[in-house]
Amino acid sequence: xxxxxxPSSSSGDPFVWTRKDILGLDxxxxxxxLYLFDTAESFEEVSTRSIxxxxxxxGKVVALMFFEDSTRTRMSFELAASxxxxxxxxxxxxxxxxxxxxxxxxxx
Length: 108
What we know:
The chain has 2 domains: 1-42, no CATH class; 51-107, Aspartate/ornithine carbamoyltransferase (Rossmann fold, 3-Layer(aba) Sandwich), CATH 3.40.50.1370. It is 28% helix and 11% strand. It has helices at residues 30-42, 71-83, 104-107, and strands at residues 61-66, 87-92.
């Protein structure tokens, strides 16, 4: 969505997303947050379709990692990945070596 709030670099060029993952909001720039909102807005039309899927992540695997029980959160993320045509791997701390004290890095 191109408007005055659409992200662009300081040189005026279109913003290019370079991050591999998002683990929180604290490290994101204003440009990156605006880019996320613009991207989300572009998916609004998809939600009105009878088939609510796009091939954005076809052939990609998304790892879903949950450290606390939360059915609604887990299902929301699984549905989002599915609608983007991604394959998913779900990880829960409860059924892993993390529950025995192993670090997350060693576990994954």
